[in-house]
Design a protein that fits this description.
The chain is mainly beta. Among the domains are: 2-44 and 618-710, Jelly Rolls (Sandwich), CATH 2.60.120; 155-307, no CATH class. Helix content is 3%, strand content 46%. The strands form 13 sheets. Strands 1, 2, 3, 4, 48, 49, 50, 51, 52 and 53 form a ten-stranded antiparallel β-sheet that branches. β43 (565-571) and β44 form a beta hairpin. The longest helix has 13 residues, at 209-221. Residues 192-200 have low confidence and may be disordered.
């Protein structure tokens, strides 16, 4: 018999579910409650430390509540958790990272409607700078027309006649006429005759437009059916009873000396540049040679400005996201203020050229910021506000398309395309539907005429798990054949790697439903969290464009405790863990950058709210040893594993399970005494070898050597 040694370098690439011949020398079969470090080897995970508890006797809504959002103000340790209770009288609570409840106040005028909205359920949050936007996925956005009124419901029952010029010649004055409901009112001054009586007494001022307007107004007002108001050379004509009427005009200079209009003109240049009647409205209708969608203007006292269709009652957006601001901090207690946002109504055009945004009549599925715009997804649409104006979802002009205007897109496919999430990532916007992923791209400046939606990948997605962006990566959970995979988009130097399956060597590893993702790009970790206290942890490390570590392991929290649910939130390099059990919320923190100074136990409350410590078991199941002939992939089946030698620090126990005898042998080891070896004496494939520790102390494993014997052949052994 000849000796053979196999050296494993600390298993820093975590778990592999591949066949033994494909497993790398730095991978193992199982790893629990450990961190695989490419430099330091395997060590215990950080503990979950008890912060406090929210108990039903003092917080009656806790049993129905849910952590919906967390955010870090970035100063003075102000880290907050927002909890939704779905109780109409007390729908939102806020706690700091110490578990202390903060004050929540409301705008007095809108408090009732705010609470109704927040208690609708399925509440989520988005924090930008120091403002948090709260939105319910259960509320349908509508337009409430009872909150507005038309600018001028009867603007089309007013006629204007502008005598632009007079002849300037008293012997040849212009004639002017208006036709009101087929009744003619005219200024037809008698021309003076040469040498006659009229030559000495011509119609004074008839050649002047102001005088002609005066004369014409007098004729109109002589008829009680009409009311005519004159200011300079412009007449404003209405029917005395306020009714509608027909109107045309005429002048003797080929209709070049006057302009008359009721409701509309073809060109804005037809209107006077000094209009004496404020709040005058006109529709610019265009002409055969200048076709465009109608738009509307209003005289503001100094200029004609584009405005909304005066007869339209467009209403205001309601059941929209609310805002929450941290307005003060006194003795460690912050006060948060919740109120409605004054969403801008449409201010120009009509429903044809300035329609309501696509989300009206739908429910918000996601809220995001992108390119200095607030965005809303709903069903298959993506709608972004006017640039730098987060309250406006309507166009700012109906005359032209402006780059800064609102962007409203639709994802059009031959399958279900309801959008669940939209994530800004690497100067693009990635959109997630149930069966596919899309990228919002733009040619030139981002605006309504430059954007498009393009399909990038087609992975079925777990729609209740929000994707996360961290550094140059975007992570999400896909589902295929009832298997969950963590996928990653990576972009660097214009080279796109999309939808990489990070479970390629662990296809069935994530065997509990993932409820949330937590990522930290500094440490290089992605946590696939479940509501049972289990987290499937992906550790990675990149060297430029190369990934030199890609390691899976499992963290099991609160061993011996059965929670009703566990909620995970992220704040910097710490993880907030809220365990709900028997109507209590017990709050913990887990510091991902923990250096190992603390004892290794999760602490929490038992059923009587007595604090207990729960040491957790950290373990590594060694890979199946697979020696091969050099130059071939022929395995050596008749290999006897004699001994295992472990290098590292601290204490651990070894467990050798002999499948043939159904017997387990264990041994305690103290690596400070160079006691890291144990005998196996079993053939390969017939034994499971586990290294573990369930004490409160830390341990590290830097390398493992398996020593064996085999029947030699003529070939060297690898």
């Amino acid at each position: 018999m000849s000796k053979i040694n196999k050296i494993y370098s600390a298993f820093f690439n975590g778990v592999s579910q591949q066949n033994a011949e494909l497993v790398l020398d730095n991978q193992c079969r199982e790893m629990t409650n450990c961190i695989p470090d490419i430099v330091r080897g395997i060590k215990k995970r950080p503990p979950a430390k008890l912060v406090g508890a929210l108990l039903p006797d003092t917080n009656p809504n806790i049993a129905q509540s849910k952590i919906v959002h967390s955010y870090d103000r970035g100063e003075d340790d102000e880290e907050y958790y927002i909890m939704a209770t779905e109780n109409s009288s007390d729908p939102v609570r806020v706690y700091n990272k110490a578990g202390v409840e903060m004050n929540v106040t409301y705008d007095s005028a809108t408090e009732a409607s705010c609470k109704t909205y927040l208690s609708a359920g399925n509440l989520r949050g988005l924090t930008v700078q120091d403002r948090t936007w709260l939105y319910s996925r259960n509320k349908t956005i509508t337009v409430d027309k009872s909150l507005t009124a038309p600018l001028s419901a009867n603007y089309d029952r007013v006629a204007y006649y502008w005598l632009k010029r007079g002849s300037g010649d008293r012997f040849n004055p212009f004639n002017y006429a208006v036709y009101l409901d087929n009744t003619t009112f005219a200024v037809d001054p008698v021309k003076p005759s040469v040498g006659g009586t009229n030559a000495q007494n011509p119609p004074t001022g008839a050649e002047d437009s102001d005088k002609a307007a005066e004369l014409l107004a007098a004729k109109i007002n002589a008829n009680s059916t009409w009311t005519c108001t004159r200011n300079g050379s412009i007449l404003k004509i209405v029917k005395a009873n306020g009714g509608d009427f027909s109107f045309t005009s005429w002048d003797s200079w080929g209709n070049q000396a006057s302009e008359g209009w009721k409701e509309s003109v073809n060109r804005i240049t037809q209107l006077p540049q000094d209009m004496p009647f404020d709040d005058s409205y006109v529709r610019i209708a265009g002409s055969e040679g200048n076709k465009f969608t109608d738009y509307f203007v209003k005289w503001t006292g100094s200029a004609w400005e584009e405005c909304l269709d005066p007869k339209a009652d467009r209403g205001l957006l309601v059941d929209m996201p609310l805002r929450m601001d941290r307005i003060s901090l006194t003795s460690g207690i912050a006060t948060f203020y919740i109120d409605q946002i004054d969403w801008s109504p449409p201010r120009v055009g009509n429903e044809e050229n300035n329609s309501d945004p696509s989300f009206v009549g739908r429910k918000v599925t996601d809220l995001f910021f992108y390119k200095n715009r607030l965005g809303i997804t709903s069903d298959d649409s993506i709608t972004l506000t006017e640039a730098a104006n987060y309250r406006n979802f309507y166009v700012t002009t109906a005359i032209d398309t402006v780059t800064t205007d609102v962007v409203d897109l639709t994802v059009s496919t031959n399958q279900a395309s309801n959008i669940y999430f939209a994530k800004p990532f690497n100067n693009s916007l990635y959109v997630f539907t149930k069966y596919a992923q899309y990228e919002v791209t733009n040619e030139g400046p981002f605006g309504p005429n430059t954007v498009s939606v393009e399909s990038v990948t087609n992975y079925p997605m777990q729609t209740d798990v929000e994707p996360v962006v961290m550094n140059n990566s975007l992570y999400f959970i896909s589902v295929s054949n009832n298997r969950q995979q963590l996928r990653e988009y990576v972009k660097a130097d214009n080279l796109s790697v999309q939808g990489v399956d990070l479970n390629i060597s662990t296809p069935t590893y994530i065997d509990k439903p993932v409820t949330s993702l937590i990522a930290d790009g500094v440490i290089g970790i992605v946590m696939c969290c479940t509501d049972s206290g289990t987290a499937y942890v992906y550790n990675y490390k990149d060297d430029g464009a190369s990934r030199i570590q890609s390691a899976w392991s499992t963290w099991e929290l609160f061993e011996g405790i059965t929670p009703d649910s566990v909620e995970w939130t992220s704040l910097g390099t710490s993880v907030g863990i809220w365990m709900k059990r028997q109507g209590n919320y017990v709050y913990h923190q887990l510091f991902l950058d923990d250096k190992g100074e603390n004892n290794r136990f999760d602490d929490t409350y038992d059923d009587t709210q007595f604090q207990i410590d729960l040491p957790y078991k950290s373990s590594v199941l060694l890979p199946d040893y697979y020696p091969q002939l050099i130059g071939t992939r022929t395995p050596l089946n008749k290999v006897l594993i004699k001994r295992v030698v472990v290098e590292g620090q601290g204490e651990f126990e070894s467990s050798v399970y002999r499948k043939d005898y159904d017997v387990t042998y264990t041994k305690f080891h103290d690596l400070s005494l160079k006691d890291g070896d144990f005998y196996v004496n079993s053939k390969i494939g017939n034994v499971d070898i586990t290294l573990y520790d369930d004490s409160v102390n830390d341990f590290k494993i830097s390398s493992v050597v398996i020593e064996g014997l085999f029947q030699p052949t003529s070939k060297e052994i690898k």
